[in-house]
Amino acid sequence: MGKRVRLFLPFLVCMMLAIRVGYSQSDLPAGVLRNPLNYHNGADPWLTYYDGNYYLAATTWASEWTMRRAPTLAELKTAEPHTIYIETDPSRGFNFWAPEFRLLNGHWYFYYTAGTFGTYDNQRIHVLESESTDPMGPYTYKARIFDPFHDVWMIDGSVLELNDSLYFLFSAFADGLQSLFIAPMSNPWTISGERVLISQPTYPWETVGGFVNEGPVALQHDGDLFLVYSASSCNTPDYKLGMLTYVGDDPLNPDSWVKTPEPVFERSDENGVFAPGHNGFFRSPDGSEDWIVYHANDSTSYGCDGRRSTRVQQINWNEDGTPNFGVPLSSATEIDAPSGDTGIDPMPEFVPPVISRFRGFDADPPYAYLRHSNFQTRLDFNVTADSEFILRPGLADESAVSIESVNFPGFYIRQQDNVIWLSADDHTENYAADATWWIRPGLADTTGLSFESFSRPHFYIGQRFGVTALVELTDTMSDRMRQDATFFEEH
């Protein structure tokens, strides 16, 4: 084994250059920070300040929820994520999106969207319940939240507390448009009446890349109520925030909500911030300031994936009582921390990783590349961010490699029941073994490379009946199968 690995030392050298984010002490004064709070896996963030600490959670795409805790926003950047819940029920155990956690009736309720493996068609909203008033839990599964009159696809659940009553806000389809709804609740985990449609994507700025209203969340200030939501497709740099204003006396009456005709928060090309959206709100430690937390991208080429980062900035208030979110701040902008927050910002030190694509054996163009789609792997002529990977030291053996997705950090190519998937690292020994590969000379061309399974020696990433799967290396292996198991690395 050792001799065969040493033949491919250049690959391992390149791999070791892929250094993750590190931090050193900043020269910024106390109480000043810069965005973002993380460099990846920061989508759909929910942030709150409670009992001396900030708590942050974001979309994981996986089967577990993690949360970070720190006394200052700056320290959230280096806080370790703590796993607060792992789901084992396959009917609700995948594609974890859009967390929100609220303290209601002496318990924290952790709302989120989840579904089934390999598809987003079965996404539904669920809620966990804490044992105590600690936002970190422990949590147990409480219920699936659904409208008994319309038990359909629904995402991005949020609770509105108004006049001692609870209401549930969410996104679902109506007339083929992804729209916003509100429904009454009898308790923090039960919808008690039929949903009411309150917004649909009708303005041109709500329809870029798709007709989308999603991610509704309430903002209350000096007796006024606003509902801020995300509009257009998150796959575009024009994902943005819109707003409804509550003007009536019944939130279940659609006429009680008036839409602002222009977006209230959108991309800033000057500041290099794109697709700002799916936000939440939090208060400063002393309760005197309102802040927005949201995700955004650093490039117009990024989309709805793990490259979105979490950002914050203060909300100002106009003379008419409406919120003024300003423009998304540049990562170079020094931000005064929330009032009462005196944290010292760590200065990020980031060495860009070596990004690889793995081209199939085809002798002539067009070439097909290894990629993931809906977390399944295949060879595809369409080269996208789904075709980009980083070679990391092997999770099970650092002299081998693990193949991490660029646009879904923390997700690795692994074999499971001989089929090749992209899935989140669950930190188990079995996962580490199944996601570790030996780099070998190409089975069909030694100038290329082949990936031998660590957990199944003599089996390689190849093709079986059109499916990317493990194939066994034997003396009778056909030339076509050897070609299907051979790749050429490009940077």
Write a concise synopsis of the structure shown:
It is built from 5 helices and 38 strands. With 491 residues, the chain is mainly beta.
Structural notes for this entry:
With 491 residues, the chain is mainly beta. The chain is globular, with a radius of gyration of 24 Å. A hairpin with a 6-residue loop joins strand 20 and strand 21. Strands 11, 12, 13, 14 and 15 form a 5-stranded antiparallel β-sheet that branches. Strands 3-4-5-6 form a 4-stranded antiparallel β-sheet. It folds into 2 domains: 147 residues, Trefoil (Trefoil (Acidic Fibroblast Growth Factor, subunit A)), CATH 2.80.10; 317 residues, Glycosyl hydrolase domain, family 43 (Tachylectin-2, Chain A).
SSE layout and pairings?
Layout: H1 2-6, H2 9-16, E1 22-25, E2 32-33, E3 46-50, E4 53-57, E5 64-70, H3 73-76, E6 82-86, E7 94-104, E8 107-115, E9 124-130, E10 139-145, E11 154-162, E12 165-174, E13 177-187, E14 190-191, E15 196-199, E16 213-221, E17 224-231, E18 240-246, E19 257-259, E20 274-283, E21 290-297, E22 309-314, E23 316-317, E24 323-324, E25 335-336, E26 346-349, E27 357-359, E28 369-373, E29 376-380, E30 389-393, E31 401-405, E32 411-416, E33 419-424, H4 429-434, E34 437-441, E35 449-453, E36 459-464, E37 467-472, H5 479-484, E38 488-490
Antiparallel strand pairs: 1-26, 2-25, 3-4, 4-5, 5-6, 7-8, 8-9, 9-10, 11-12, 12-13, 13-14, 13-15, 16-17, 17-18, 18-19, 20-21, 21-22, 23-24, 27-38, 28-29, 30-31, 32-33, 34-35, 36-37
